Amino acid sequence: MGGKQLKLRTKFIATEGVKEYRETIPTCVNEDDVVLEIGCEWGTTTEILARHCREVIAIDVSDDCIERARQRHPDLRFELLDGFDVQAALALGKRFTKVYIDISGLSGYRSLLDVICLLTMYATVLRPQAIVIKSGGLKHFLRQSVAWKSA
């Protein structure tokens, strides 16, 4: 069974809270990156990401959020898309090197399965170098986890 698992090269970074989520940007994002931001709300994090990368495309499922983000940041690209529709993200036609995910409802322990499915979908379809996700539940789970290594 050892060699048949899905082997992903994407690095997953779990953060808790908006402050910590945004603190990752200067360390994780560089001027060559093309970033997909999932759950952009009003575009505040999008604007921060844009200062550190070559290109950022931000998506949200809310028409109101996208309209407000476009008004606040007319120089940035915002698209109305469901973050759980990885095929729609693929159809954007970009080779995303980093993905940032801040979707409401992904922070509790009850959402861990959804978080893992979302991370796996984006890692296998878009194959970014890293995915940063705001999920306190995932961060706490990972702190208590250890990958066993056989002798």
Backbone structural class = alpha/beta
Radius of gyration: 16 Å
Percentage of helical residues? 25-40%
How far apart lie the N and C ends? 16 Å
Instruction: Report mean pLDDT, rounded to a whole number.
Output: 93
Query: How do the strands line up in the largest sheet?
Result: 1-6-5-2-3-4
Biggest sheet record: 6 strands, parallel
- SSE order, as H and E? EHHEHEHEHEHEH
Q: Number of DSSP helices? A: 7
Quote the beta fraction: 15-25%
Spans of at least 5 consecutive residues with low confidence = none
DSSP E strands, number: 6
Apparent shape = globular
Report on the structure:
The chain contains 7 helices and 6 strands; from the N terminus they run βααβαβαβαβαβα. By secondary structure, the protein is an alpha/beta fold. The two termini are 16 Å apart. A 6-stranded parallel β-sheet has the order 1-6-5-2-3-4, sandwiched between helices.
